[in-house]
Amino acid sequence: MKQEIEMEFKNLLTQEEFNRLKHFFFIRDDQFVYQENHYFDTPEFSLKGQGAALRIRVKNDTYTLTLKQTIEQGLLETHEALTKEKAQSILNNPAMMEGEMKSLLKDMGIAAEQLQHFGTLATHRAQVPYEGGMLVLDHSCYLQTEDYELEFEVNDWEQGKNSFEKLLASFRIPYRPSANKIKRLYAKKYGVEDQS
Questions:
Q1: How, if at all, do strands 133-142 and 52-59 pair?
Q2: Considering only CA atoms, which of 158, 129, 122 is closest in space to residue 33?
């Protein structure tokens, strides 16, 4: 089990803007890594109601269970590495979750038995170092939808915000607030616009 604070800025892109950034930063197609995010919540969306999200990410034959919780600046992420077999058993039956992650959820008033796997979002992701942080280009596919997104992961909120705004301005990319991936999946699946 590992915890870290994630600070990032996000912006939705058009396909043309995505391609411009890709070419400017010399990102080749073979530098994009495929990953799948499998999301969980209760039927009453108890995690969403607490500004939290739970997922299993599959990437390069690794399986990671992650709980994201909103904090003042950014997100607190708790990660647990899983075997392929354990990940599959949780996907088939979230009640199979155990250990510290199960305890963390219980502290939030959520029993593993209440959880269900409600959707998967696949992403092709490339990242390059930029201005003391990490610039991420994402092309995501879910529920017959495709979208493009720019993320900037930083360690310093103010400096990162300044660098991100300058980058958007220099490419004449309008600021388009980007809900996180789980919220975009919710919005598409349930027909609700939740861009908060």
A1: unpaired
A2: 122
| Mean pLDDT of the region 67-87 | 93
Could you confirm whether domain 2-190 is CATH 2.40.320.10? yes
User: How far from 165 is each of 18, 32, 151, 170, CA to CA, in Å?
Assistant: 16, 24, 12, 9
Q: State the DSSP code for 40.
A: E
Instruction: List the Cα angle 187/52/164 in 5-degree steps.
Output: 75
pLDDT the model gives residue 195: 41
172: phi then psi, degrees, rounded to nearest 5:
55, 45
Residue 196 has pLDDT above 50, yes or no: no
In the chain, the percentage of residues whose pLDDT exceeds 70 is 97
Tokens representing 179 are: 């809900």
